[in-house]
Amino acid sequence: MSSVLDNACKRAVSPGTERLLAGMTLAAAGGINDEKLEKEDFLAAYGTFQLDASSEPFTTKTPMWFASMTKFVTSVAVLQCIDRDLFGLESPSDVDRLLPEWSQPQILTGFEDGQPKLQKARGKITAGRLISHTSGLAYDFHPGLLLQWRQSRGEGPRAMRGTIPDVFTTPLLFEPGTGWAYGPGHDVAGLMVARANNCTLEEYMRENIFDVLGMDDTTFEPRAHNGVAARLPPMVGRPLPDEPLSDETASLNNTRNLMLDHKDQYGSGGLFSTAEDYLKLLKSILRNDGRILRPETVDTLFTSTMSPSSDVALNTTLTNPAMAAAMIPGEPMVGSPGTGHWTHSLLGLISLTAKEGGLQAGWTQWGGAPNLKWWIDRKGNSCGIFATQLSPPGEKRHQQITHFFQQEMATRYGRS
């Protein structure tokens, strides 16, 4: 590790009013280099569980709530089922068969005299549209039509507060395949996986992903599996950008508690894991080793699934400062100086712009609400994860750490 990265990480967790993080873990790996050799994985941890410097140290085996990092794993599970002919990627009939609650969707077009205006969708939901956020489903906690629809029914946001069929059979916001909206598609797709295999999503992933790769600390059931819940660090928060960190102001605590005592196994945000565990999955996909997916299937994970109108909708979403901060933390907001263009695959966001001194155009990434982030750069031959438990999502002051980390790993593992 270079002194630049090491010193930046040490400063970030140094006690005092300028402390950026309580604790963090970094893990990265390369693919096969030009000499067909594998360089050693990079693993590092800094800081402590609490802001109290005498509390337990963070390690690369520290479990955390991984939130939307779950989506990567659910996408892999969906593609496994497609490989096994359990359902098709773009088959509406399989949605009708396995997800009848979503077989006849309606589109919310607006309101008249306070009442929602609904029309029958002409298009159909498919597994591929669910995991690329182009199905028309959206979360009900974002300001907009769907939150207004909830309020018209005398309800507040219900995402993650019941079973998947109970809380996510909401109207669509657009015709399937024609737009883009961040939403619960992976929750519904995870239910599709569970029903196709007549088991829970946890049981499916443990047999077909976690046990195969040795991901022993990854689970939807942290209170029941391997003592994960008892080993979780608390969430810390920065209430305002210029205020110091606090153990008492972590706004994500309530959401994490919903995941600890969940009503269902949410394929979009329900997993708890460690940096070491998650790196095993990233490596398998980067190296296309055939352990969990067919090599040709892995290629499809990195191919844009977007229609022209969906692509426009995605990049329009990324002009919103709040959405950009959460979805592409540390990257220029679309429409600002230095911005790039983004598209979306079955796995995550694809940047069509190279990072100076770092990742190459075509790198793929996603993150998790407590300021976690993963990436895979197939051209540049690296993958990695930055993990912490920090609120709010998209907190800006620590983002330079992830930039240094990615830049150094791109150099460490890059092909000669």
List the helices and strands and how they pair.
Blueprint: H1 3-12, E1 23-30, E2 42-47, E3 64-65, H2 70-83, H3 92-98, E4 106-112, E5 115-120, H4 127-130, H5 145-152, H6 164-168, H7 185-197, H8 201-213, E6 236-237, H9 253-260, E7 272-273, H10 275-287, H11 295-301, H12 308-317, H13 321-327, E8 342-344, E9 349-351, E10 364-368, E11 372-377, E12 382-387, E13 390-391, H14 399-413
Parallel strand pairs: 6-13
Antiparallel strand pairs: 1-2, 1-12, 3-7, 4-5, 8-9, 9-10, 10-11, 11-12
What does this structure look like?
The protein is built from 14 helices and 13 strands. The protein has two domains: 3-70 and 218-413, DD-peptidase/beta-lactamase superfamily (Beta-lactamase), CATH 3.40.710; 77-197, 3-Layer(aba) Sandwich (Beta-lactamase), CATH 3.40.710.10. A hairpin with a 3-residue loop joins strand 10 and strand 11 (372-377). Helix 1 (3-12) runs antiparallel to helix 14 and helix 2 packs across helix 7. The radius of gyration is 21 Å and the shape is globular. It is α+β, with helices and mostly antiparallel strands. 32% of the residues lie in helices and 14% in strands. It has helices at 3-12, 70-83, 92-98, 127-130, 145-152, 164-168, 185-197, 201-213, 253-260, 275-287, 295-301, 308-317, 321-327, 399-413; strands spanning 23-30, 42-47, 64-65, 106-112, 115-120, 236-237, 272-273, 342-344, 349-351, 364-368, 372-377, 382-387, 390-391. The longest helix is centred in the last third of the chain and has 15 residues, at 399-413. It has a seven-stranded antiparallel sheet, sandwiched between helices. Strands 3-7 form a two-stranded antiparallel ribbon.
